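Appendix C reproduces, verbatim, an entry submitted by the partner laboratory led by Prof. M.T., so that reviewers can inspect both the input and the predicted structure.
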Amino acid sequence: MNYKEIAETEPFTAKTPFHMNPGWELLLENSNKNCSHSEIELLLQKRIINLIDIEIMKILAQYPYTNSNNITFLLNHTLHQGYQKPSYLSNLNKLKKAGIILRYAFTDTAKQTDGVLATASPLRLYCLSQAAHTYMASITPDCHQAATASISTVRKLELASLNQFLIRFQQHYSTHIASLQYLKSTKIGSTPFTIDAALCCSATHPVFKEKEHIWLFMFSCREYGNWIKNNLTRLKMLHIWIQRHSDEYLAPFVIYLTENLSMALTLYSHIQNVPLLESFPVYFCPDSLLISSPPLDSIYSCELEEDGHLTAIRHSISF
């Protein structure tokens, strides 16, 4: 992997759609919250569910809690040109009405009146309903965990941000991906923790003469609640885990998905105060850059200057 510093162009606190304000909550919009396998089969037989609908179901089986923009992006890179459309909202609405997919919307709970919730954001997140998930698990190897009501709003947003990175990474660097472990569950002793994604990529590294497998370990974090403390804990556990598996995971590369650069610098400043982590290399990727730049052109490192100020340096990384 080759590194090249490039000019800073990203606003310091650029907006991300995957942000949660106080008083907001992601609530389910469905009136029909589930379906059966036989109902899905009947819709297929009647050709009410078409090729595009199946592709949407495959995307949500692989990337639960994805927004419509990233669904559209992926479809318009994978579907035959004759099937591509500017928007797939009609397909999403059809699948929602059938109970095949669930749609979550941000609402401002403080403005609730007479049982009616006021929409607080245009963001919508989609996932498969329970029956649709088990249906897709039988036909696609990339089907990940089923949607559950117990997943917090913040976690849904973390997954939405993670999915955006992975969807775009897949399109730009598909020939380099050897494997992807989504929500990799592991343990330190008896304590479980989850690595949001572990990407194994074939890459050229300056210290190697030939291509080797490089591991990218990814975490997504949102600026909400005790996010700094929680993510320092995640990093400490990852650091210990990588040390214990150093023979298996060559040249680990840790990337944190943040809402903006301000979050990256804040987290980095706290990392420097943890003896275990102060020399642990962590890179950052703000959400908003991914709309216009390939993922590995959107990576920042942070540095502490001699005068005590923190600076973020943007890099372009090539395999």
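Confidence is low (pLDDT under 50) at residues 5-9. Additional entries are available on request from the coordinating office.
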